[in-house]
Design goal:
Subcellular location: Nucleus
Structural class: mainly alpha
CATH architecture: Orthogonal Bundle
Organism: Sesamum radiatum
Keywords: DNA-binding, Nucleus, Repeat, Transcription, Transcription regulation
GO molecular function: DNA-binding transcription factor activity, RNA polymerase II-specific; RNA polymerase II cis-regulatory region sequence-specific DNA binding
Oligomer: single chain
Helix content: 40-55%
Order of helices and strands: HHHHHH
Mean pLDDT: 79
GO cellular component, one term: nucleus
CATH superfamily: Homeodomain-like
CATH topology: Arc Repressor Mutant, subunit A
Largest sheet: none
Shape: elongated
Number of domains: 1
């Protein structure tokens, strides 16, 4: 699925660096005492959206440097699961319900 590949951190390419990978799996750029846990503010959402428009939905370690207290992984998850225009915010259709129940 194309959307998954754009938001996935699992793809390995020659452009991946160890610091980029470590910021996706943890928060090397954000010290534990500086990390923000919990809900994102509307302002953080706006900043994240602007940064994704500017840098793309793959440069999470770079993007996280502009959002104080948020790791690259946190930024990626927020974008891919809530803010991306590809996320459908609607109830499941009857056909989707049937597919889920059949699994």
């Amino acid at each position: 699925m194309d959307f998954f590949n754009r938001c996935s951190s699992g793809s390995s390419s020659s452009s991946d660096t160890s610091s980029e990978s470590s910021s996706l799996s943890g928060s090397k750029n954000v010290h534990k005492s500086e990390r923000i846990k919990g809900p994102w503010s509307a302002e953080e959402d706006k900043i994240l959206t602007r940064l994704v428009e500017r840098y793309g939905a793959r440069n999470w370690s770079l993007i996280s440097k502009y959002i104080k207290g948020r790791s690259g992984k946190s930024c990626r998850l927020r974008w891919c699961n809530q803010l991306s225009p590809n996320v459908e915010h609607r109830p499941f259709s009857a056909a989707e319900d049937e597919t889920i129940l059949a699994a």
